[in-house]
From TrEMBL:
Gene3D superfamilies: Glycogen Phosphorylase B. This is Glycosyltransferase family 4 protein. PANTHER family: BLR6297 PROTEIN, GLYCOSYLTRANSFERASE. Pfam families: Glyco_trans_1_4, Glyco_trans_4_4. Residues 20-188 form the Glycosyltransferase subfamily 4-like N-terminal domain. Transmembrane segments: none annotated.
Length: 409
């Protein structure tokens, strides 16, 4: 059945294959015999307007990251237009059976709805982020735009034939807030592939006798709290005079230049290093040099419900974690994390110094995290659940008019 089906995936905030979750899903579909197309922005070294990678057809468009409400409105409108035009280009290549739309923003349902009305295309919502909570976290107000985001989220769930949740908290939101029947929501977690995420020989430039290295990996937006880590390192180095603790920050994002400027202002250049985006062997070599991983994301309505890739990545490498009190991340990390109850650079510095000075605890936490990861963090299991959802949705004889009635697989 899958060999005769074409799935189009829409993603707005990251290019593919840079977006690991979307790329894993696309590869899973292609490996199961589906014809797969992806529409996404260009960037992160992936700038071709059209190319085929690993059998997946990728259509890209230019995108400039926004930093203000007006900028986001322009960005999302431009993305919507590009996705709409490119979706019909993908359809000219081959009929589209399913559109899978990833958020943010919660506007891609409009593209799926158009294809559903015109061609009977199914719509799968891949729920990556909490739009209303993310807006409130960034701008601190529940105004007209916040209410519009709530409205768009409800309409997305209403139009969707099935929804993919990144964790149990998102599944509960899909059911309670989105009105989705529970048997139309499947949890698919974003675990790295174990074969590609293993310790290697550490990056030699980061290995300094007598020095301990702590680190962060991820996107650097205003909501990610990396500034708190920079200020915590200032506390460690300047206030507590610990010249044996260094930090490496891996990744990029809209806040990167500002964070570099803050580090320079605090005169942390000898203790804090920014690598930019890394991948493959270089990423593994840098992560393998760490003594512990940091999750500086502040507790709030959004972060409290997110499954963070950093948790999975640190645990798979056997790295103990220092983090703030984040509900979902704390549940997933369990004993691999030292949870700092107060959100402040001072408290984060306390947690870093406490673990650095307790090598036995670091070791036991790392062993625990690695054991949990080996037992539970298996992308192959998540991929099966993902493909089972598609098999159920596309079973012979099912039409869009039957979408509310198909059973769970």
């Amino acid at each position: 059945m899958s060999q005769s089906r074409h799935v189009l995936i829409l993603v707005e905030n990251l290019p593919v294959p840079f977006d690991r979750r979307v790329w894993q899903e696309a590869q899973a579909l292609h490996g199961a015999g589906y014809d797969v197309s992806v529409i996404c922005p260009a960037g992160k070294g992936y700038d071709e307007a059209y190319e085929v990678i690993g059998g997946v057809h990728i259509y890209r468009y230019p995108l400039h990251e926004a930093a203000s409400i007006a900028g986001y409105l322009r960005e999302y409108f431009s993305a919507l237009v590009h996705h709409g035009l490119l979706s019909f280009r993908a359809r000219r290549r081959r009929r589209i059976d399913v559109i899978q739309a990833c958020n943010p923003p919660d506007l891609m349902f409009l593209i799926a709805l158009l294809h559903k009305l015109l061609f009977g295309t199914f719509f799968v919502f891949d729920h990556h982020d909490l739009g209303p909570e993310l807006y409130y976290t960034k701008f601190g107000r529940k105004d007209l735009l916040y209410r519009l985001l709530c409205f768009f989220e409800r309409q997305t769930f209403r139009v969707a034939d099935a929804s993919i949740a990144t964790n149990e908290s998102f599944r509960d939101i899909a059911v309670a807030r989105g009105g989705m029947p529970p048997d139309r929501v499947v949890v698919v977690k974003s675990y790295p592939e174990a074969s590609k995420f293993q310790r290697t020989e550490a990056e030699p430039s980061l290995v300094v006798p007598g020095k301990h290295l702590v680190g962060y990996i991820g996107i650097m937006g205003a909501q990610d709290g990396v500034e708190t880590l920079v200020r915590a390192m200032n506390e460690v180095v300047r206030v507590r005079r610990r010249d044996d603790i260094h930090c490496v920050i891996i990744g990029d994002g809209p806040e990167l230049n500002g964070l570099k400027a803050l580090s320079a202002k605090l005169k942390l250049d000898s203790s804090l290093h920014f690598t930019g985006y890394l991948s493959g062997p270089r990423l593994m070599a840098h992560l393998s040099a760490l003594s512990l991983g940091i999750i500086p994301d502040p507790p709030n309505e959004c972060n409290d419900k997110l499954s963070m890739n950093k948790v999975f990545e640190y645990m798979m490498l056997g790295l103990p974690i220092v983090q703030f009190n984040l509900g979902q991340a704390t549940r997933e990390a369990e004993g691999a994390a030292l949870v700092v109850p107060e959100h402040s650079p001072h408290a984060l510095a306390d947690g870093i110094v406490r673990l650095i000075d307790d090598p036995e605890r670091r070791k036991s936490m790392g062993v625990f995290g690695r054991a949990v990861a080996e037992r539970r963090f298996q992308w192959s299991v998540e991929a099966r659940q993902y493909l089972d959802m598609y098999s159920t949705l596309l079973r012979p004889g099912l039409s869009v008019n039957d979408q509310r009635h198909y059973p769970a697989s």
